[in-house]
Amino acid sequence: MIVAFSVTPLGVGEDVGEYVADAVRVVRESGLPNRTDAMFTSIEGEWDEVMDVVKRAVSAVEARAPRVSVVLKADIRPGVTDGLTSKVETVERHLSA
């Protein structure tokens, strides 16, 4: 399963980078495959372990912000591993053809 999510602290002003870094730090320390871009962090693993990491990432932001917004999208596909890499490689292969 791959989950793409974003955690946005509300009520802390416009500069939210340090709060988002708290969430990303939790994801990176989880040891699960992950990737962060300008809009989302994607993480790959089994349902319970991925959701636990998302919950802890939200909690890290919630500890410092009065309100938190979360956007989450999940690709649940049993038996597929390394989807973070293989899905991108498939698109790149089609682009180079």
Automatic annotation (TrEMBL):
InterPro entries xref list: MTH1187/YkoF-like, Thiamine_BP, UPF0045_domain
Record-linked SUPFAM superfamilies: MTH1187/YkoF-like
Any one GO cellular component localisation term in the record: cytosol
Positions of the Thiamine-binding protein domain: 3-92
Short name of any one Pfam family annotated for the protein: Thiamine_BP
Family statement: Belongs to the UPF0045 family.
NCBIfam families in the record: MTH1187 family thiamine-binding protein (TIGR00106)
Protein known as: Thiamine-binding protein domain-containing protein
